[in-house]
Amino acid sequence: MSSSRRSCHNEPNVFCYICGEYTVKKYRKPVTDFVKSAYFSYFKLKIVNDYKPWIPQIVCKMCCEHLRQWVSGQRSRMRFGVPMQWKEQKNHFDDCYFCCVNLRGVNVKK
Ligand SMILES: [Zn+2]
Ligand SMILES: [Zn+2]
After folding, report:
1. Mean pLDDT of the residues in the chain
2. Share of the chain above pLDDT 70, in %
């Protein structure tokens, strides 16, 4: 038996696909067709939605709303120019975004 962790210690679906930030449950939104098309128009990148274990299947409320505002012309730009890129991790020790993020201290009030 190997002692290295084979699975994530954090669940990928608590992270926003677009900004990569930890998202509390009530602010998680599904990746809808609207999100996909708005994301593509803004970033010129396609949302990879093929259920890989290292790719989140949610977006945060803020990204979702900002995309909506951008599409409707109420917002000229997103808060960042380059969205999070999701690559397969080599290991869960020092190459995994989810395992390396420290979730302690993250809460709704922050
Ligand atoms: Zn991991
Ligand atoms: Zn986000």
Report:
1. 88
2. 87
Give the number of the ligand closest to the Cα of residue 91: 1
**Å from CA of 106 to ligand 2 middle:** 15
Per-chain residues with Cβ under 5 A from ion ligand 2: 16, 18-19, 60, 63
The predicted-structure confidence for 30-67, as pLDDT tens digits, reads as follows 999 999 999 999 999 999 877 788 999 999 999 999 99
Contacts of 86 (CB under 8 A, 6+ apart): 17, 48, 52, 54, 55, 56, 97
Direct distance between the N- and C-terminal alpha carbons of the chain, in angstroms, rounded to an integer: 41
Distance of CA 72 from the midpoint of ligand 1 (Å): 37
